[in-house]
Here is the input.
Amino acid sequence: MVAISFERGNEAFCAEHGLDAATPPTLGDALEQAHLALDKAALFFGHGSDSAWDEAVFLILSACALPLDSGDSVLEQPLSDDSWQTALRWLQGRIDDRQPLPYLTGRAWFAGLEFYCDKRALVPRSPLAEVIRNKYRPWWTDGAPTRLLDLCCGGGCIGIAAALYQPDLEVCIADIDGDALSLADENIARYELQDRVKSRQSDLMGALGDERFDIILCNPPYVDAADLASMPAEFQSEPPRGLGSGEDGLDMARRILRDAGQHLRSQGLLFLEVGNSWAALDDELAAVSLTWVEFSEGGHGVLLVRAPELPNIVKHLALAE
Ligand SMILES: C[S@@+](CC[C@H](N)C(=O)[O-])C[C@H]1O[C@@H](n2cnc3c(N)ncnc32)[C@H](O)[C@@H]1O
Here is the structure.
């Protein structure tokens, strides 16, 4: 958890944001104050919640160490001084420092599962959660997959969720960043998955030898230079290596498409997220028929490639020499 100095009774911060320095009587009162303060602060929401209200609920329940699915009955509960001081500290980190809330609370959710979360890796938010929940259907039709690679795994949420949704799946998770992998290892241990989920430090697939997989799920860096320059302050807290990928956002995606054929089984599938850079990739591969995944829970920019399609795709890629 990130330590932020918050002076007990920091009245200037409280006064500026309409917050009581003294502990409000109930959790419901605290929620109302947090909501108003977050709403007025012109923040960016998109790191696990999409509104000031959702974030206020997440913040206050976390400060009170209550589960996120607590019902309305908790609103009447008395609030402890410690919980309010924690909430004020997190509100200050969120409003003054523009930190994403999961970095302050140390908790994030992905595919309905809770993960440890801190600045060692991006805050989980990939639409690949829906692909995992749907068990890779309708594209995977051949019984259950047995081996899966989560490439560019960050804190490990994608590979770990895949393993939890399919109890006999063997999973390799790989990232170039040792700090991200240390967080991923903590998440693997949290779910006692050390036997089935193995982490590997690797520059894309460079350290994977001749290993092959049924499924590769990959959320690589894919933000293009223009988007990177105009991102809200909240993104400055995330590891830069997790976001940018060259002028058009596709430097990593091209390398992944070039090499994936060596690591997929003959009927394997690659799900490659490229977010807003999907239009540039779609243009570059205009001569090829591409499958873009449609999501019912929100999200876009995920390309689905079947192993036999890769040679033709690689032929049309603008690969650097
Ligand atoms: C967009 S983040 C995704 C993290 C995680 N999969 C998720 O969905 O939250 C991209 C990740 O790619 C990793 N990365 C960047 N360059 C890489 C490379 N050359 N090889 C492997 N991983 C790389 C970064 O360290 C970062 O963790």
